[in-house]
Each structure stands twice: as C-alpha cells, then as structure tokens.
Amino acid sequence: MKPRRLIRIIRGIIFIVILGALLSVAACAKPALAPEAPAKEELPKIEWKFSSEFSAATFFHDAYYGRMFDRVRELTDGGMDITLYPAGELGFAAADYLRLIKDRTVEAIEFNPMKLAGVEPAFGIGNLPFFVLSWEEAEAVRNALLPLWQKVCAADWNGKVVYAGPISAQHIFSKTPIRTVDDLKGMKIRIYTWEHAEMLKAAEASAVSMTMAEVYGAGQRGIIDGALTSVTTALSDHYWEIFDYCDQMHIVYPIMTPGVIINMDAFNELPKEYQDAIILASEELMEVDFDILQEVATEEEARLKDYGMQFVEFPRVEAEKMAELSQATWGVWAAKAGSLGYEAMSVATAVLEGMRAK
Predict the structure, then answer these.
(1) CB–CB of 103/312 below 8 Å?
(2) Is the predicted pLDDT of residue 8 greater than 90, yes or no?
(3) Do 15 and 50 contact (CB within 8 A), yes or no?
(4) Which phi and psi (to 5°) does residue 111 adopt?
(5) Alpha-carbon gap, residue 291 to 310, rounded angstroms
(6) pLDDT confidence of residue 34
(7) Tell me, what's the pLDDT at 22?
(8) pLDDT bracket for residue 209 (50, 70, 90)
(9) How many CB atoms lie within 10 A of CB 216?
(10) Of the candidates 39, 232, 315, 346, which lies 20 to 30 Å from 215 by C-alpha distance?
(11) Contact between residue 125 and residue 348 where contact means Cβ atoms under 8 Å apart
C-alpha cells in the first residue's frame, strides 16, 4: 500500500473516532433548564368604607350596592373589599359628598344626583314631574345622561362615577281617588320640591311643604288630602292607616339616584385588575337594575294591597296632559340649572323624542 493512501485511511479513522466521542458526550449531557417564570406579583388587600345616606332597610342596599360590592370582592379573590355604612353612620352629610370626593376625604361614596341638585343644579333633572313617562324611557335617559354626569364629576370634582341606578317611582297617596287631571283640583298635597309645587299649581291643586315625619299627623288631622312619595315610603310609614288610595300617577320615574363615585386618584392607583373588576361589576348591575326595581315594586304594591290600600290607574293620556302642564316648570328649571341644565335637557329630550316617534 502506498504511504499517501495509508495516511488518508489513518486520518479518516481518527476523524470517525473523534466524531463518535463528541456525539457520545452530547448525548450524555443534561438538557439546559428553561428559565424560571417570574413569580406573579401578589396584589394588595384594599379596604374601603362606603357611606350611604339611606337606611339599612332600603331595598337597593342589598339589590344594588351589596350585589356590586360582592361581585367586586369575587372578581378580585377578596383583594378589594368595599364595606357599606348606611344611614350616614360615618357622619357625612349628603350635601358634602362631592366635596368629600374632591378632597379625597373618602375614596368612594354614594352618588345621588337628585339629592345633589343643590350643588350641581343640572342633576335635578330627575325631579322634573312627568318628564319621563315609562320605565323604558327612564332607563334610556339614564344611559344617555350618565356619560354627561361622569364628565362633569371628573372635571369639577375629581370623581369617577362608576354606577347610578333607579329607585321607586313617585305617586300620590290620597283620601279620594285621582284618575284624571281634573280630580286634582282643590286638593292639598304634600310635596318636597318646588318643581312639584309648580306642577300642582298648574293643575289647580295646592302644594303643602312638610317633612316626612309630619305627613302622618297631617293626614290624620285632615291638613292634607294626600302626599307625594314612593310605595317604599308608604309601607315604612304606614300610609294605609291615613290614606285609602295609591294613585299611580308616576309623577317622577327616578332616572338615577343610588350610585357610586370614586376619587379619581384613588381609582387610578388601584391595580388594573381591581379597576376592571369595579367597571365590570357596575356594567353587569346596570343591565339588570331596572328589572330588579320593578320586581321590588310589584312585591311592595302587593303588601300595600294586603293592608287594604286601593291602587288607582292614571291613564297615559292623563299623564300626557300633566306633562303639558309641567313644561313651563321644566323651562324654569333649565334656566336655573344654566348651560349644563340645557345640555342635559337636550340630551334627554333627544332620547325621548326618538323613542316616542316610533
């Protein structure tokens, strides 16, 4: 064999041996470990106190606030805990609620636009008599006005309105039935806002202003012929003992009253998971709160009937007559409420005209 060929053979053998050794080492080598995933950051435990001016017996404490806060707790695995304090237990006056949010004296508090009309007059649109004529209209107007109230509260009060829901309709409870506008003539009716007084004046009735605590005695003594309030109040204050009729006039379909407003800085400081939980819980509640309200109203009306109170229908055509009589009052209100009042009226009117044109 020639020397050159022998050298090539020897080199080939050496290459094969080295390659085999390398493959053997690679096969025996331990696989590289994947980098460990970073530990998930543990979210903080956050506890807020929530003040409501309404008593603990008010149905929406469980139906609205309780439902929403329980859902937030569930979505955050207990990390976000909002505790309700009813009947002003925390010592805050309802008229100060917006200031308390602006100053961050509290992180969250009740947003009650109808009761805050003294601070932001445009919020009083919910008190206008016969402005809204059905629950469907009330819900549509609520949904249309909420973005406006959110904008105002963010700009003027550093607050984020995350929820606003409805409460019971306002009727007249009376000693004699009211089935038509003419039946109101000469009657003395307890009211609680100037808008209602103007409405009754237009219908040739007399408005009597007094506190809820005075109504029972005034009804007993014949000082008043009736009182404007809700079925809920009629139950709690035993109106069946002084009045025989619930005249289902639906003078006010409350657009929004019990709600939740949060200091904007406090909300922005929350973990995103908590922010999302609050918004989702609110959205879920707003899909069903008007249904909840009507279920409660049906139950409360049945209880009053059991006590002997008679329910009197007030036809739509009569409600429309009352709306015509009330329009001057709406105009006065808008002028008092200023540019924001006119904007709110424009938004709500557009919604109502669109619904009534169908």
Answers:
(1) no
(2) no
(3) no
(4) -105, 110
(5) 24
(6) 52
(7) 46
(8) very high
(9) 16
(10) 315
(11) yes
Backbone angles phi, psi at 168, to 5 degrees: -60, 150
Q: State the pLDDT at residue 11.
A: 54
Residue 19 in this model has a pLDDT that exceeds 90:
no
| Distance (Å) of CA 12 to CA 2, 8, 322 | 16, 6, 109
From residue 252, alpha-carbon distances to 48, 132, 168, 176, 288 in Å are 33, 7, 9, 21, 20
Contact between 102 and 157 under an 8 Å Cβ cutoff? The reply is yes
> Do β-strands 170-174 and 245-252 pair in parallel, antiparallel, or remain unpaired?
antiparallel
Query: Which residue do the tokens 């109203």 mark?
Result: 297
Q: 226-230 and 46-51: which strand pairing? A: unpaired
Contact 341, 121 (CB under 8 A): yes
Amino acid at position 281, single letter: A
What is the per-residue pLDDT for 212? 86
- The total number of residues shown for the chain amounts to 358
Give the pLDDT of residue 346: 97
pLDDT, tens digit, 9 for 90 and up, residues 51-98: 999 999 899 999 999 999 999 999 999 999 999 999 999 999 999 999
Write the Ramachandran bin of 338: left for phi over 0, alpha for psi from -120 to 50, otherwise beta: left
Residue keyed to tokens 């008007």: 290
Q: Which domains does the chain have, with CATH numbers?
A: 46-166+255-309+344-356 (3.40.190.170), 171-251 (3.40.190.10)
Cβ-based neighbours of 264, under 8 Å, separated by 6 or more: 154, 158, 159, 160
Where residue 36 falls among pLDDT bands split at 50, 70, 90?
Answer: low
